[in-house]
Amino acid sequence: MILNEFCEVCGYARKYAIRLLNRKIKSATPTTKLPGPKRKYQAEVLLEPLKRIWFASDQLCGKRLKAAIPLWLPHYEDQYGTLGLPITHKPPHTTLMISQQQETSTQKL
Known about the structure:
Blueprint: H1 2-10, H2 14-22, H3 43-56, H4 62-80, H5 92-108
Helix pairs in contact: 3-4
């Protein structure tokens, strides 16, 4: 009965009206949370030094730029100063290597 009245008032076909009424309602406010883990660095802080190193290295591709950054970073710091970024993340293998070194040094004593 309600469906018939809706179809008459709006001029929709019955099947279209059923689909229209059964669809999910989209929220008015978009979700701002990004999927995945939280970032471990601030992209805004790293973007300027990364661009300068990228242009100085004649715009290397990402794979080669990753290998070149440790070579270019001391020269960048000499010219522009230190980046001043706190290291908040250590790779898991680094922590494992440090713990293994400590174990071997205590076993030698």
